[in-house]
User: What shape does this take?
Amino acid sequence: MDKNKIDNLVMDFVVGSDVKKKEDAINAIWSQANAQGVYPASIHDLYKARGEGKFGGFTVPAMNLRSLTYHLARAIFREALKINAGAFIFEIARSEMGYTDQKPLEYTTVILAAALAEGYRGPVFIQGDHFQVNAKSYKEDPKAEVEGLKKLIKESIEAGFYNIDIDSSTVVDISKEDLLAQQKLNSELCAELTAYIRSIQPKGINISVGGEIGEVGTKNSTTDDLRAFMQLYLKNLPKGIEGISKISVQTGTSHGGTVLADGSIAKVNLDFNVLKSISEACKKEYKMAGSVQHGASTLPESEFHKFPGFDAAEVHLATQFQNMVFDSKYFAADLKKKIYDWLKVEAKNEFKPGMTDEQFFYKSRKKALGPFKKDIMTMRDREKIAVEVEKTFAFLFDQLKIKDTAKLVKQYIKDQNMKRHFELLHDKKAESFEGDD
Assistant: This one.
């Protein structure tokens, strides 16, 4: 299947209005992926081997693509092929699915289409990032909040998300002095959701599950936090159920960075030793891959080489890619004005006292990605924007040292019952977008 045909299929599926064309497009993409040997996979066994000390020295980038997903994913695959990289993750958070208007099956399908267009073969790691317990909603109705999260997890797994990051760190109670008391609810919910994931994961697939002990933007995590969480988590995990393979921690960052009055990002005092000490404890005491860093894409370029050196297993990158799209000289000026005018009305409640226009638009513009998805995806110079961002992907892959990791992926990630993937998805495709407009 040539690239132009794949491009057209993606456009039909993502921004088209004809349900029959959508169905034909998704069937064509998944069938071709099957034929080409491209399939969603779990990174669990690779992380398990890392936790056992079989290799190290690199950090897996997990990239959230909020806009121009197909074009940016193609750029990622191009760079991966140049350096024989295989250890990289595409992810999207629970919140992002809403404001970017990207359901799990759409995200998976577009990523697979990008792999096809670039001639990539093998496992593709797609991850549910921050499948988060909303603390306020949980307090009001615990059962409803957990059931809502389970529904999302089920939908995502059925769509090929074989990597799920549970974030129940929102209910950590730091007002309590005892660490076990602080982490009690977090560990219980994470154990419950881990068991649920294991109960519905497809036969032959061992989903990679991550936990979190420190909500981004709060106090820095410690090894004692990890031990308190793991003590309770393992106690609450049903016997015989395999647990998490990594842990997200807080090191001093915040999602999207701290925006100054002129729209620039404030310097972050990130404590890399948190990553190193927790990774060491993860591997030595629990055979886990190690620590995970969130909110890193807006850090200075000079910081990224430190992640492998301080033994971070994974780093999450999102906002900077979005910024590069919006701020590109190729982003249509008339469309940006239209978006910003829309934000002044639809997001005016986010304009806080003392905010500058630059701060407001920086913080709020992500909310326009869903409503203006078609406009952005059909911009004349969208591919030129992707080429610009591709340079950043190349830089990050070099700094995180993922060159030649395709060899390790091939060694530890075996064919995860590919035929079963497509059987499971066959009956789910049409119902996921039927009635969309």
Summary: Confidence is low (pLDDT under 50) at residues 433-437. Residues 133 and 168 are 5 Å apart (CA to CA). The beta strands are 38-41, 60-64, 89-93, 122-132, 163-167, 208-212, 246-249, 291-293, 314-317. The radius of gyration is 21 Å.
